[in-house]
Amino acid sequence: MKSFFTALIFSFLVSYIHAQVPLSPNLNTIVESEKRIALRLSESSETIADNYDVKYHRCEWNIDPNVYYISGSVATYFVPKTDDFSELDFDFSYNLQIDSIRYHNSSIGYAQRSDDVLAIFLPAL
User: b/e map of 77-99 (b: 16 or more CB within 10 Å)?
Assistant: First the structure.
């Protein structure tokens, strides 16, 4: 019984030490950014996506564990809630970079704002 408690205490100690490993500076920045956004949204009566319904996101990622870099694409299927729909706003960390945004196979404009919001400007239909 004594060895069981010793093993249990050792297990908790190892778990505690492992939990104290600091995150990389870039990951810490992203975590803090996501916390700010979550807090802002929880205090607001509106959400970022209040003028459209997202039906699904299709994400395709290229990840190499040997390189500190992720690339990929995200396709979003959405349905507007209003007739005067002209802009999509997404929660998107300012630390991430966008190569291009396409809508029906045409490049469209966007703005990566410092408040971690990605604004996508849709063409007039």
Answer: eeeeeeeeeeebbbbbeeeeeee
Contact 22, 31 (CB under 8 A): no
pLDDT band, residue 24 (cuts 50/70/90): low
Residue-level pLDDT at 31 = 79
The closest of 96, 97, 86, 89 to 122, measured between CA atoms, is 86
53 phi and psi angles, rounded to 5 deg: -110, 120
pTM score? 0.58
Task: Report, in this order, helix, strand and coil percent for the chain, each rounded to 5.
Answer: 30, 35, 40
* Cβ-proximal residues to 82 (8 Å cutoff; 6+ apart), any chain: 51
pLDDT tens digit string along 42-58?
665 445 657 888 899 99
> Which amino acid does the sequence have at 9?
I
